[in-house]
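Work through this protein:
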Amino acid sequence: MAADRRFKIFAAADGFGQPLKDAVVAHLRAHPAVAEVVDLGVDKYYAAAAAVARQVSSPSDSSPDATEVRGVVVCGTGAGVCIFANKYPRVYATHCASPADAVNTRSINACNVLALSGIATPPDAAAAIADTWLATPFRAPCPASGDAPWPEDIQRFLDTAPEEMAAIPEPQGPPDSACAICCLRSGMEFEPVGIMPGGEMRIVRESPTSAYVRFKAGSVEPAHHHTFGHDLVVIKGKKKVWNLTKKESYSLVNGDFLFTPAGDVHRVKYFEDTEFFIRWDGHWDIFLDEDLDTAHSAIDAELGAASNSK
């Protein structure tokens, strides 16, 4: 890294990424090449990613001695924040799980937003990744090049790539109001979830498993757990999830995201017809920890107590 190279870094996270984001922010504030770290706080993973990406996407002074603006985004897996940061022009976000990932993506992709997993990456590993990400210039020898200088044909490609990437236009014409998941759901045939009355699902990929699920209003999922952790995004509707292992509850509506760790026992109540997209880290399975009548009684007792306390 050139001695006079300086960075201004914007950082944000969701709740699952907050502890790692705080550790990385503290580390970067002590880094000799970092002029300033702006901590944008904690929000839903897509909002946190957008807050950082807007700052990195904004045109800045391109003079040789200008401070370079970069971003750090953290969520549970590092995938969600990466997806949404990359929706902004001139933002090249990559999830890095190792310093080698950081060297490769800086060398090849000119990555300017570093995405990290708050669940899988410990603070000391994240600090090493961030240091490498700052220290590695674009077009540097990297593991992908065998740690040798790039051949001339690849060097010529890398010389022209940044301008070509930045010139890729915005979509023309009126925006498509249907998201990718909604397009996937169109025309989908569902199969009943036999042990969950009112529920239907369609598995769209096996191990790691992705599925589109819907439940009728009033349906209840008895307390259960899975072998693998899972992410879900509510497409439409309203539901409440009680994580009995953590003694926490979450009210979810359109666009909300929830990660449930492997083995956590949870029950669910649907207040409206609800549809959601869900992804397990491995194959889909389910183990019931109570029967349906017990679940209804527990939920009715809690909701009744909450109503009486108002």
